[in-house]
Amino acid sequence: PVGIKSIEHAIIDKGWEMGWVVPQPPDHQTGKTVAIIGSGPAGMACAQQLARVGHRVSVFDKNDRVGGLLRYGIPDFKLEKSHIDRRVAQMEAEGVEFHTSTYIGKTSEAEDGLTVRSPESLLESFDAVVLAGGSETPRDLPVPGRDLRGIHFALEFLRQQNKVLKGDRMPRQITAKGKHVVVIGGGDTGSDCVGTSNRQGALSVTQIELMPKPPEHENKLLIWPYWPLKLRTSSSHDEGCERDWAIVTDAFDGKGGKVERLKAARVEWRKDAASGKLKMEKIEDGAFDLRADLVLLAMGFLCPTKPVLSAFGIGLDPRGNARANTLDYTTTVGKVFAAGDMRRGQSLVVWAIREGRQCARAVDKFLMGSSTLPR
Q1: How far is CA 236 from CA 85, 230, 319, 363, in A?
Q2: How far apart, in whole angstroms, are the C-alpha atoms of residue 123 and residue 121?
């Protein structure tokens, strides 16, 4: 097989090494200004395209460093942050301005120490605004004992570790050192929690998933061109982890307000004859306990953070994302666009980049009447 991903990595890495990847500043300025909220993959991709055709672009992010979930949601062992830093330097040379530690919304909803700008001020100061934040509202697990100490959302855990690795002080860091860790959720974020827990010195790491164990190999003729359903094992799993599937969490238990165990049960998934949908049924005598000093909830993300969308008065789709299509990326508010997770919900980095670039073309066309940017 041809490893297309490996080939593309080798080409671009060689390009950076040899100095072939250089800034491409515009040869003229349009006089138009664009504000982009969010410096993740969608925001950065959109900003770079717009800057290269001569618009003045300002990127705002509530975090203290550029990169969004690339910076704080993905561990260093999967994504070296130097890749982000060199791209930021290239974009700054092309004229993009980055404003970190800046919250867009209401002052009452901003964390202490952040600069706050209202949506009204952006709409007055810029010719177009792009909402390109990430999907950061995690799926919770509202079962008895959820309020015990030691139960955290995955992103809390991963964000703190990434900040510590950059030299930030974190006096109350969530750490897996010397603990029995249970990760709930079998996706990429769960895998990141497994790898990070091992690196912090966890005594044991167990990852459980509600859905049944996928097959070792996909049925290519049945699945193509859709995303194949098959068992995926990452380097984090290879480093040490117990994995189990078709497990439902019924409750958390502990003493002194601290979690000590997870009460779970094995389930079977059966197709309902009437609806054709899979339904979960508990297996008789399938209940069991898992020791847990630290529980990490990695069950996906529901939608973007609501305060930013509500501050702009953006209409939402049924899933809570900004309502916008992929033709012009416009929202229900004039001259406000949305792309990436903000529009489509939790997705992959490549989708965010694609939408950011397509949104840039839509914004350019809105500002200039036509666009030479690729779709």
Answers
A1: 25, 17, 31, 40
A2: 6
SS3 96: coil
CB 265 within 8 A of CB 282: yes
The mean pLDDT value of the chain amounts to 95
Residue 221 above 90 pLDDT?
Answer: no
Q: How many CB atoms lie within 10 A of CB 298?
A: 26
pLDDT in tens, 48-65: 999 999 999 999 999 999
Q: Could you report how far apart the first and last alpha carbons of the chain are, in Å?
A: 29
DSSP code, position 182: E
Beta bridge partners of 252: 262
**With contact defined as beta carbons under 8 Å apart, do 13 and 19 qualify?**
no
Tell me, what's the pLDDT at 218? 80
Report helix, strand or coil for 250.
strand
Give 121-177 pLDDT, tens digit per residue.
999 999 999 999 999 999 999 999 999 999 999 999 999 999 999 999 998 999 999
Asked whether the domain spanning 140-297 has the same topology as the one spanning 4-136+302-368, the reply is: yes
Superfamily (CATH H level) for 4-136+302-368: FAD/NAD(P)-binding domain (3.50.50.60)
**Alpha-carbon distance 343 to 325, whole Å?**
8
Q: Output Rg (C-alpha) for the chain, integer angstroms.
A: 22
Is the preceding omega at residue 144 within 30 degrees of 0, hence cis?
Answer: no
Write down how long the chain is. 375
Burial of 257 (0-12, 13-18, 19+ CB in 10 A): exposed
Helices (H) and strands (E) in the chain, counts: 12, 17
140-297 maps to CATH 3.50.50.60: yes
Domain-wise residue ranges, the chain: 4-136+302-368, 140-297
Q: For residues 134 and 249, what is the distance between their CA atoms, to the nearest angstrom? A: 27
* Residue whose token pair is 């929202």: 331
